[in-house]
Amino acid sequence: MAIEVRIPTILRTYTDGAKAVEGSGDTLAALFTDLESRHAGIQARLVEEGQLRRFVNVYLNDEDVRFLDGITTKLTDGDSITILPAVAGGMA
Predict the structure, then answer these.
(1) How far is it, in rounded angstroms, from Cα 28 to Cα 73?
(2) Is 53 left (phi over 0), alpha (psi -120 to 50) or beta?
(3) What is the pLDDT of residues 63-87, one digit of tens each?
């Protein structure tokens, strides 16, 4: 099963600069475990205590996984995952 994972600039140090990598897994958690096996350290930047980190947004085919089943969201062959760090700030 091939799933494309788009990697934000801040996490590309874990993927040797690759903007996108392929992974596999039947859930988002399994996909992150698969990515960790080839890109050591990336999983800790995405997951904390079995849940998505608060300031990481993950989209499955343009749907926010927080509104699906979070880390247990089911995946299928050909899905596309986009990881985006949350952005905060502005003028006070």
Answers:
(1) 6
(2) beta
(3) 999 999 999 999 999 999 999 987 7
Question: How far apart, in whole angstroms, are the C-alpha atoms of residue 68 and residue 11?
Answer: 24
CA 39/CA 15 separation, integer angstroms: 6
User: pTM (2 decimals)?
Assistant: 0.89
Q: Write down the CATH superfamily of domain 3-85.
A: Beta-grasp domain (3.10.20.30)
Beta bridge partners of 81: 5, 60
* Nearest by Cα to 55 from 43, 44, 46: 46
